[in-house]
Write a structure and sequence with these properties.
The chain is mainly alpha-helical and 378 residues long. 62% of the residues lie in helices and 1% in strands. The chain contains twelve helices and two strands. It has a two-stranded antiparallel sheet with strand order 1-2. Helix 8 runs antiparallel to helix 9 (228-255) and helix 11 (292-304) runs antiparallel to helix 12 (313-341). The radius of gyration is 24 Å and the shape is elongated.
Length: 378
């Protein structure tokens, strides 16, 4: 059973028209700036939900893609190479004062989906303006990672291999953000900034996507009839990814006071679910090896450590289902031990823990920068 954290791709932005602010020295540069604006407008209209294009036309424009998520991913992949090229050329002249002023006139504004205030804002989303093209590139990549993750969830019931691959690709995008794109931006960030613009939040998201990818791999292993010992190790590997994400998120909270507690609740819930599943398979393996007393102790400890349930109803239902499954299994083993085996149940200090095996790794993101010359006026 997997739970999801919906809404990460529900970012909003304000219009940016590059050719109205950046002055081109030749017609080729002007056309490229117009193309940048056109590609961005396609993204804007999609995420701001103000496009008047019919489904049939959208499908035709995307080469036959029927999934709205896939169409949005394609729009981002069309915009990103042009944006990477612009960022490259502007960085070459970043010490020019006039260029800095022009970049500020672009008024790059994005909302957040990770702040606590974003949930309760009555007059539409709150926008953060940061006058830096690295902010634009960062937020577009945040959106790209979120869309890949959304598509992974979309295909989960149909193609486990594709779903795991998409999660790994999303992890690679967030890893690239955390280590390449966002670090140069950190000193330019104002005190009030969206959590998505910080490197550590991208690190958290990269770990969550790796945990998701491994969770899908475990699901595939379960369907293939793998043994409980391997499944226990794989589930505990998911748990370790999430422990690392929680540790990183605690550091994020010191930088971003407004980050939503819902994200921590989600990660903690996922961690508990996979921990319980790993204990279930560990207990089954112990029982099959004739160690039913130890299996009883493992299940008792697992249930004792999982009394708190998440706040969100859908997550709570999944958590309760797994807890109920383990409770039924514990009663079965206790009954079997009481009437047949009469094994001593070891104390907590003598009980084994599952061993973790981590098999998911990010698929590295390599920016597809278009090598086009831009000649801008100073």
């Amino acid at each position: 059973m997997m739970i999801s954290y919906p809404g990460l791709s529900k970012l909003k932005t304000k219009q940016v028209v590059y050719e109205n602010v950046l002055l081109a020295r030749d017609s080729g540069t002007l056309e490229q700036l117009k193309e940048l604006s056109s590609k961005r407008k396609a993204v804007e209209e999609s995420i701001n939900e103000n496009s008047f294009i019919t489904e049939a036309i959208a499908r035709e424009m995307s080469g036959g893609l029927t999934s709205g998520c896939e169409q949005d991913i394609l729009k981002l992949e069309n915009y990103l190479p042009l944006l990477e090229n612009l960022v490259h050329h502007v960085d070459l002249i970043s010490n020019n004062h006039r260029m800095t002023c022009w970049i500020s006139d672009l008024k790059i504004r994005w909302s957040s989906t990770l702040t606590s205030s974003s949930i309760f804002h009555l007059h539409g989303p709150k926008f953060y303006q940061i006058n830096d093209l690295h902010f634009e590139l960062g937020m577009i990549l945040v959106l790209y990672g979120a869309m890949l993750r959304e598509r992974a969830l979309e295909v989960l019931s149909k193609d486990l291999v594709q779903s795991a691959t998409l999660f790994r690709k999303a992890s690679g995008v967030y890893h690239y953000l955390a280590h390449e794109v966002l670090p140069p931006l950190q000193n330019a960030l104002p005190p009030e900034r969206p959590p998505e613009a910080t490197s550590r939040v991208s690190s958290v998201m990269s770990l969550i996507c790796l945990a998701d990818a491994q969770a899908v791999t475990v699901k595939k292993a379960e369907e293939n009839g793998n043994t409980g010992g391997l499944l226990a190790k794989l589930h505990y590997g998911v748990q370790e990814f999430l422990v690392e994400a929680i540790s990183e998120l605690h550091s994020v909270a010191k930088e971003c006071k407004d980050i939503s507690s819902r994200l921590l609740d989600f990660i903690s819930c996922c961690k508990t679910l996979h921990e319980l599943k790993s204990y279930k398979y560990l207990a089954e393996g112990l029982r099959n090896d004739g160690k039913i007393g130890t299996a009883v102790g493992v299940l008792r400890r697992a249930l004792a450590n999982s009394k708190s349930l998440p706040k969100e109803e859908s997550w709570r239902l999944v958590s309760k289902q797994i807890i109920d499954d383990l409770t039924v299994l514990l009663r079965k083993y206790e009954h079997e031990n009481d009437f047949i085996w009469h094994e001593k149940v070891p104390s907590n200090g003598e009980l084994p823990f599952p061993q973790a095996v981590k098999v998911a790794s990010p698929i590295p993101y390599h920016p597809q920068k278009w090598e086009r010359t831009l000649v801008l006026k100073m």
